[in-house]
Known about the structure:
Layout: E1 2-6, H1 14-25, E2 36-43, E3 52-59, E4 65-71, H2 74-99
Parallel strand pairs: 1-2
Antiparallel strand pairs: 2-3, 3-4
Helix pairs in contact: 1-2
Protein name: Ribosomal subunit interface protein
Organism: Aureitalea marina
Amino acid sequence: MRVNVQTPNFVADAKLIEFVEKRLSKLELFYDRIISARVYLKVIKPREKENKSVEILLSMPGEDIMIKKEARTFEEGTDLAASSLERQLKKRKQKQRTYS
């Protein structure tokens, strides 16, 4: 799976990008037909506590999955989004087993 990380309005360090790629690579354990992941890391309203936005678009055969989470840090937002994606991928895989 290819992971494309985009960070508008700031420059992300290598540790953050590596963390995101490593966390999303675990999604392949739940669903092996993922083609790519586009990740958008954004800072919204710098004065608020939960001002980090993480958007992930998973491309796969059939319908794509889009998830958006806000948190205090990008790492926390990535974990929340990945956990949500894991649940959705498990459901999708279970539906495929039911129909086949």
